[in-house]
Amino acid sequence: MNFRTIAAAVLVAGMGVTAVFAQQQGTHEAREALMKKVGGSAGAMTAIAKGEKPYDAEVVKAALTTISETAKVFPDQFKPGTETGDKAASPKIWENMDDFKARAAKLSSDAEKILAQLPADAAGVGGALKTLGANCGGCHENYRIKTD
């Protein structure tokens, strides 16, 4: 099985996640499904950056598009009333929703900028991951509940 086949399978699986997401919008499950999409995209790019997979522009484009689109809708999943329960997100999100939304918008914008000047090789993909990872890390540092 070649890398394009695997990438296509990942994208099709992502569509299934989108269908589930539409039914569960605003729930912990929907938020988790969106983060798994971002994680899968970052994983595909990481494999290229590390040389584990050959550079494939289509895989990089798909990953960046997924990250950008997911970041746009992610903050909308934190509606009032979803801040409590067994799988509650950090209350800091609701306390500073403007910052949370700004961070998601920056991730989306950075992914779009990288997409517009698509990295041409594994090293470029690695550089893109540093930019995107800084966005993810900053948000997780401020808003993710740390579990042991």
UniProtKB/TrEMBL annotation:
InterPro entries: Cyt_c/b562, Cyt_c_II, Cyt_c_prime, Cyt_c_prime_subgr. GO terms for cellular component: periplasmic space. PROSITE patterns: CYTCII. Heme c binds at C136, C139, H140. It comes from the Bacteria. Coiled coil: none annotated. It holds the Pfam family Cytochrom_C_2. Keywords: Electron transport, Heme, Iron, Metal-binding, Signal, Transport. Residues 1-22 form the signal peptide. Binds 1 heme group per subunit. GO terms for molecular function: electron transfer activity; heme binding; iron ion binding. GO terms for biological process: electron transport chain. This is Cytochrome c-556 protein. It comes from Rhizobium gallicum bv. gallicum R602sp.
